[in-house]
Amino acid sequence: MKTIKFLALCFIIILTSCQTQQEHDNLDTPTSGNLTIYADRGLDKLIENQTYTFSQIYNLAKFKTIYSSEQEAIKALYDDTCKVIALNRALSKDEEGRFKDANIFLSTSLVAKSAIVLIVNKDAMDTTINMENLQNIISGDTINSFYHSIVFENEKIFGCYLLQG
């Protein structure tokens, strides 16, 4: 009788200790699991690139990206609809205060900034440019300048902030 009780107990322990595939799929770690991200519509290329690259390296990581307005993203983070949002700006003091008042503590990371990159012909004689020259080029005043035009690849200038709640 003791042997039967012992075997039954061992069997119950083995059954309850085995993790099902569904439980394994729901396990969120830094390199696996499911993450919903709300992102500003202007950041679509950047976010798609980052999530694709991450999920190629860590194949157990799955992303659901929802592109929305800044206010919708902030509301989703506040309402706990998502854990990460990506914005073109840092939160204002008022927005930070609302999160703090609700005992939601954020971690903010600046992940990208806009920059001006000048690509010139290798035969160009000028090796330096100052702010005055750059301002003249941007404003279109290139009459007395070696530089005659400027091309913007992406007219939207941004910084990208990731916020985690």
Shape: elongated
- What percent of residues adopt helix (DSSP H or I)? 25-40%
Topology order in helix (H) and strand (E) letters: HHEHEHEHEHE
Classify the fold: give the CATH topology: D-Maltodextrin-Binding Protein, domain 2
Overall CATH class: Alpha Beta
> Structural class, please?
alpha/beta
Strand runs, count: 5
Question: How would you concisely characterize the structure shown here?
Answer:
The chain has 165 residues and is an alpha/beta fold. It has helices spanning 2-17, 21-25, 44-57, 70-78, 93-101, 131-139; strands spanning 33-40, 61-68, 84-87, 107-113, 159-164.
Kindly describe this structure:
It is built from six helices and five strands. The protein has 165 residues and is α/β, with parallel strands linked by helices. The protein has one domain: 3-Layer(aba) Sandwich (D-Maltodextrin-Binding Protein, domain 2). The protein has a five-stranded mixed beta sheet. The mean pLDDT is 77.
Helix/strand layout:
Layout: H1 2-17, H2 21-25, E1 33-40, H3 44-57, E2 61-68, H4 70-78, E3 84-87, H5 93-101, E4 107-113, H6 131-139, E5 159-164
Parallel strand pairs: 1-2, 1-3
Antiparallel strand pairs: 3-5, 4-5
What labels describe this entry?
165 residues; D-Maltodextrin-Binding Protein, domain 2; 6 helices; 38% helix; alpha/beta; 5-stranded mixed beta sheet
